[in-house]
Design brief:
alpha/beta; eight-stranded mixed beta sheet; 9 helices
Length: 318
Amino acid sequence: MEQQQRQGGTTELRAQLGAMSVEGTSVLAGPGEGGGATPIQTPAGGGATGGVEGGSRGSSGLANLNERKRVDNNIVQTLTANNQVLCVDVGPEMSSEWAGAGPGGTASTRMRVVQAALRGFVRRKASFNPKARRCLHRFAVLALGDGVTVVRPLTSDVRSVFEAIDRLQPPEASSSSVVEGGEDGDGGETPFDFSELLDCIAERFPPAKDPVSSVTERNRSSGGGGVRGAEAVVGAMSQVRPVVRALVLYGRSYICPLVPPTGAEKHGLLSHWRFFLDCLYFHRKPSEEGVICGEIFDSIATMETSGGGGLPGTAGDN
């Protein structure tokens, strides 16, 4: 099994998954995270990249990404609470065996490994503000099947988040059409529609409007300014608004998902400066019949190039 991860806010989760991996697994760190290996990088100007079997097939476009969003990402997450939306694939492949990933190197399933890693991720993130009476961050749990199901709305109750994670159950991967790729080569899978996921997040967990921009616009339209206008801007800056961060754990190997269009028709959530999208992609061996993990990775990566704040990584089955 090989894991590849790029910078995008999933360091803690990557560490949890790496601890459960078989001997010889390579966990690649992103820029500035202490990793010496070449990270996967998505070109900012569009185009496809690979994400399997070691390294990048695309050129680095990180220098061309929106710098304001990168800076705001670091500052806002340090000072502000996160509304963390955990989006977990519950397709049939998630019940397939992940060799050597269980306790003591035993076999486990993808879903069990992901559930254990998510519990560790939530536990660690909840401990960032130990002096507070309540967890600084809130978590929601979404199941990605043929559609999107909200298993647990936003809450700071860590125990209820654990319970929601434990309730995630994919159907048994006993059908040869899923395990072996099926006659039509798509594994019998349904293409997941990421626009439906973004619509759900925008409706149920929308990021807050920028308070400074709102005050500035009011000052401009009303002719306000001077000391009062400046005081209003300072007051708006002091308002702490949660960042919405979606973490997608996706595990389909045989059919490309449907992703939002790019350009002028791109989904509005992907342009919002307080929304960040991270994705960790699990897949079967690229050499297996019918597996198109490279194309699937490229498809997911287009959401980053169209304005999203996160960076996808991959994890291949052993």
